Amino acid sequence: MWRVVLDHVVLTSALLNPHGPPARLVDFALQGRLRLFATPRMMAMQSRALRSDGLRERHGMTDRELSRFMADLPVLLCFVKDSERGGARRSTASELLCCASQSHADFLVTSLPLISVAAEQAGTQIVTADQLVKLIGRGVL
Fold it and tell me: Which of 13, 55, 67, 110 has a CB 3.0–4.6 Å from the CB of 7, allowing a cystine?
């Protein structure tokens, strides 16, 4: 089973478009074909993003529904510790790379233009949601 880290944009896209590649990755995780990883800090970023006015209009969830959705995410995700370095000012890219490293992820799925030799040297491939869905579709998994 592949170990995967999704950035918050990919996870948000899965919520907003239940038929797109990010949603297919979440479906694969629910089927037990992928194991998703995140840090508590990443989930806090996700919660803040979903509560923003622009996204709130798109997903249409009430505060109560959104709280339930965020409370259900730990069922889907395996958590690794937040990095001690960087504190609250840690960049999104740094947080993703830290999570990928700590979880020994096979893939980091991101929409961000990340170039990280460190992640690739640790065995983590940086891909888009479309690329990973295609790999799974080819039966590589």
Answer: 110
